[in-house]
């Protein structure tokens, strides 16, 4: 719709001639890029849509306050041996990190009243419960990142395909004029090639930036879970030594 309605509007061409007129602005130039342009524009919109969706999901997973502040509060409560306060902090924070930590604290309470296991077995049970909770939360955080990563390559390849098509058209124009040069047709073909190149590179660049941003955010959440989970296990082991 953007290609056929917005970019193909006569106002973007000199004299309003979409078929044979010269583009009067960047929208007209992009429209002259050929029929691979809508495909690349679709990639751009996909990156934007999935990026917004990931920002929302990862923001919810982080919780209501800074993840670093939350981790420090949990560690402070664990150092004081106040498991109930740590659990309450998880209820306030919400999100994936808080859910995992709360699962670990719940197991902590269960192991305190488990008479059949020794300290090492109880510690392993807590650690396993935290790992299982993490495994349940991680797929939600990483969902749709594969699509963004795929668009990194697909955007470049589609842009390259448009470039090749444009250059084929350009050389066809050169060959079809018996050595003469139809500068208008040749310029249009070269313009088509360069527009596709620019759009393909732009799509890939945007995809790379967004992918790295989200993987960095997920790594920070994973590190927070690992750090706090380790604190829970160590606190239990230290406070229940014989």
Write a structural description:
This protein is mostly helical and 242 residues long. 79% of the residues lie in helices and 0% in strands. α5 runs antiparallel to α6 (95-112). The model has no long low-confidence stretch (mean pLDDT 85).
Give me the secondary-structure topology:
Elements: H1 2-7, H2 26-31, H3 37-62, H4 67-79, H5 83-93, H6 95-112, H7 119-142, H8 145-175, H9 183-239
Helix- and strand-based class? mainly alpha
Estimate the helix proportion, in percent.
over 70%
Gyration radius, rounded:
29 Å
Number of continuous helical runs: 9
How many β-strand runs?
0
Silhouette: rod-shaped
Low-confidence stretches: none
Strand residue percentage? under 5%
Main sheet record: none
Question: What separation lies between the terminal Cα atoms?
Answer: 72 Å
Order of helical and strand elements: HHHHHHHHH
Query: Please, what is the average pLDDT?
Result: 85
